[in-house]
Amino acid sequence: MELCEQYRIPHSQFLGGDGRWSDLDRAKAMAWAHWQRSVCPECRTRLQEWDHQRGGDPHAYVTDTLRCPGCELIEQERDHVPQDRSGYGVKIQLLPREQYEQRP
What we know:
Elements: H1 2-7, H2 11-14, H3 23-37, H4 47-50, H5 69-78, H6 97-101
């Protein structure tokens, strides 16, 4: 369903159908949207996964540490962005070295 949402196509088309939205496609899309709204945007879990009374487990997940070199580089560069108005709207992106060196 995630790919169907991304490409804005009905699930039946993803499975090889003609691309017309059926009642089942609409029901699936609505269920997907409802499920997506129940997911925390930060940790990507759902409250019921933690709630024993709702079939969950308060110890369902454990934390793990991951260091992303790309995110680290972005954070280091962010230290050089002015905190005053001159830094408003500054976006930091990662480019492959070859692409960066070919820039005009």
